[in-house]
Write a structure and sequence with these properties.
Elements (H helix, E strand, L loop, with lengths): L1 H22 L2 H22 L7 H11 L7
Length: 72
C-alpha cells in the first residue's frame, strides 16, 4: 500500500512541477518543492505508523509566547 502512495505522490508532484518549469518561476518552484517534500515525508511517516505530534498546540504556544497574541 505504501508503494502505491509513493507512486501517486510522484505523479502528483510531476504534474504540479511542470507549470513553474515552463514559465521559469524559480522562487515558486523552490517553495513548491520544499512544501511537497515536507508533505510527502509526513505522509510516509504517518503511513509507516510513526507517532506524529499534534502541531496545533505548538503553533498556539508560538502565537502566545513569541508574537504575544492570545485568542482566549
Amino acid at each position: 500500500m505504501i508503494w502505491f502512495e509513493i507512486i501517486l505522490l510522484t505523479a502528483i508532484g510531476a504534474a504540479g512541477i511542470m507549470e513553474p518549469i515552463r514559465k521559469r518561476w524559480r522562487k515558486e518552484l523552490v517553495v513548491y518543492i520544499v512544501i511537497f517534500l515536507l508533505g510527502s515525508a509526513l505522509l510516509i511517516l504517518q503511513t509507516a505508523g510513526v507517532k506524529m505530534p499534534f502541531l496545533v498546540d505548538e503553533i498556539s504556544k508560538f502565537f502566545k509566547n513569541v508574537l504575544h497574541l492570545s485568542y482566549d
